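hi! just following up on the protien thing from before. the input was this:
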Amino acid sequence: MKNLAVLTIFFITVSVCRAQITVDFDKKTGSWSSMVYNRYNVIYEPGKDVDITFDGKNLPEKMAYLSRETVGDKTTIVRRGGDWEVTTYTEVRDGEVRRRASFKWLGSAPVKVTGASLIIPNIQLSHSYNDYRDDWWIVPSQFPVTKHRWSELKEGYSFSESTWLLGKYSLAGVYSGRSEMYLAAGFEFEKDDATVTVRENERTVDIVHRFDLCKIFNPGDAADIGTQVIYGREGGEADMMNAFSEIQDKTIGGPDSPEYLKKNIIYEVHPWGRLEMWAENDNRGNSYMRLEDLVPYYKDLGIKTLWLLPVSWPPPWVYTVLDHKSIHPKNGTAEELKDFLDAAHGENMKVFIDLVTYGINPDSEIGKNLPDDCWAKNEDGSRSIVWGGAVAAADCSNKAWQDYIAGVAEYWADFGFDGTRLDVVGWGQSNNWRNPDRANLATVAGGIQLNKVIRDSMRKHVPDAVEMPEGGESIVVKEADIAFGYALYSYMRNMTVTNDLPGMLANIREWLEAEKYCYPYKSVPNIVRFSENHDTAAAPRYFGAGMSQALTALQIFIQGMPLIYQEQETGFADNLRAWIKLRNSVPCFYDGRARYGGAECSDPKVMCILRTHRSGAAVVAINFGNEDSTCEISWDVNIAGTFPNAFDGFTKKKLTGPRGWARLTIPAYSPAVVLLTESSGPSDTTVIEVPDRHSRLDVPAAASEGTLKIKEAERWFVSTPEGYLEGDFDDLYAERYENEPATAVLPVLGRAWKPLESGMMDGGDKGSIGVVEKGGKVIRLEFDPRKMKRVEIADDDCDGKDVALIAEPKEDTAAPDWKEITEKLTVTDEFLSRETRLGRLDIGRRHGGNVMKLGDVTGRWDITTDKGGSIDWQHTPRMSLEPDTVVFTGPITGVSWNGYQTAPSIGGDYELRYVFDDYFLRVCVKTANPEDKIKVSIPLVGLKKHERSASAHTFRFKDKSVTLTDFAAAEVSLNKDILTIEAAESADFVIRFK
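and the predicted 3d structure came back as:
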């Protein structure tokens, strides 16, 4: 597909022709038969334009036409389909069509409705078949962003948005290059949320907005749904994308947010530390005093807002609440919490409180005293209990519940909090089938109402109070200040399953460019950007130490609001501090716009972003590769003409070379920033120090093994095959049990200081650990990690006064030559890759060692046990390599509850061994528990024929064949395209290529 990043070369509003649109309806059926634009009917033929789903049924394709009334720009059509009377209202004005519908049940018995739809049927923009090659449709939230071309339409294919975790904006468009016109469609929220689907027909497409209408209709009941908004206009691709943004501005808008959010950097905290430290009966003594002590550190880091996780219940169940206004003594006292707030406010920092507003613990006395109609009810009348029995779900549209939560919000605002983070969007968690209006009013609609109640209530006490719901779809910002950008995080994770780093970076740039138009214009800077939070796996474990730093740099410099999770910065805090300082000192970052296609780099592993502001511009170039890159950066000639002078953003040194071009050396996993100005110098000449990661490693090693003891050290550093880490000796005020080291309660530091144990040293033949003494002397241990039994920086008090550098060798220190391994095997942070006769073999390091790709024949493997265990969720297995063998070992885990978080171990370890050459791949997977049954599931893509004998299975594809052999004591089966190999305790088999 063509790069969508070219869509916004100039940051001005494009004026487009809004020629008159007319609509008409079939005189016999009342169906929508025409939408005429520039004398051309873009509806190829009448089709089903409205639907409702009830008791598993739908409206008939054709309905009886009852009446039509046209008054001015508005047309009302009444039809009957079965026992439904359907009224559609269509208004046409200034290049815009607005459609809504009302449904009345005429049957004799109640029916259950689960959704209703408004459909633009049979869209076709071009005048002749020869012009179709220039036509395409798009759903801008789709990743990767895809232009579905008319020449490739497949009848029956459709694409539907799913959840806000993957981007849900209910926008779709159809574009014609030859006709130079487009349709852009969205919806206006009233009571029912809507999802967009585009369905392909033989020569046309349908755009469907399905509304989440859920209701028991009794005879005579009626309900209407929200409005479908359609723009039909002349213009180019950029105009269509701007139309999406215009629709969102008009239908969502959103409140005005305080000015301080422009420079806001959010940091998520809890007195007990990171979620991975939360445990029952933990009494280390952590409290709000710990966070108070850390306020100066957060201030120095550049943090503007602290997001405090719930206070009313201790870990590990902080999101179950008996009393929304309580402070559980295990977290600290009210006085300690007030002192923490005062300390943050004294440093001009804001603090948000995390609230659970969608329900309360079923055993809560407060809940028992609220009216019964507060609660979401199942169809049998029982209360809906969600989150594993932890929460009685409320009907968020209920006035009594809204009044109760309003009191909660006022209480915490008066206590001293500056805003709220609302768990799970602050929306209801289940339908209320006793709601007299509709069941789904308890969820999204009620949630949006409740969000407004919370924001307004807090602002009675705090005029610039801010609301941050944990939701990413665009309607979140209808009554809130901040959206939670889970979609970008989700798509960054694709880097660990798709071994195409340049392709993934290009896809992310395209998606970010499209995402800009999916929100109201003023809300785009307020999308929270993160590479980890308490609901995700730790970024270094999931992406690798270096890659996680590069992704954090991306969060800092793209358009949005960066979020850092507690202690996430361990190992690169100095770099993060420098990035934040630069971000908040240059207007194009905190008050400008982003163009994700406005700059390019000669190195495909370097992602470029252009940021612009009326006062200047900047090019950010982030190196996602594991080696320093000397590369050429170029940017838009118009920007270069307006702002001809280029300077290094950190050093402020002038860059020489042709206008619109620079040659840079960018360290691995790091950003470079080029400031562009009209004047001969940058407005701020302050030099921002960025640590030189090479300086430590240039110092000759003191030893290659053994133990070195240092008495007065200021800093530590660790160099691994997947990145570099460095930091001060500081325990971050973590309370510990007697004789417990600081690393036991600081998990990120613990992984950094034990890099061999955490797997960061796997995948290379060189590593080092070291310290910088108070006088500046660097002491370094350098070693071959494959020969080491133990590698560790040890300092129980983390104060640098008694440090040990330990590199303990194995008894047998023999290791194969690294060059021999990498001659045939490519090793990166996320993958092992090798070329075979079947094509490239990709093994995912962050997915337990599963095969992600094997040529064109197989896709991602899945290895599980009959106890519910999975290898995929072990993000950082240990790995050892030989020239033709790779071995992964690690614990078998359960499946993550939310698909993002680290999954807990369910007991027992696994060993996964691959032996390969150009002609075969031998696989052996076994568990420590002899009672476990192993199942290996392998998708076979493009399978043409399957032949089997007693000792082999042969799979024939278009031009290749694969034979499965040596599967003794295993059950082999093929169901559709999934090959399954099951065996007790271990599965051992060979795949041969021909």
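Residues 215 and 436 are 9 Å apart (CA to CA).
The chain has a mean pLDDT of 93.
cheers
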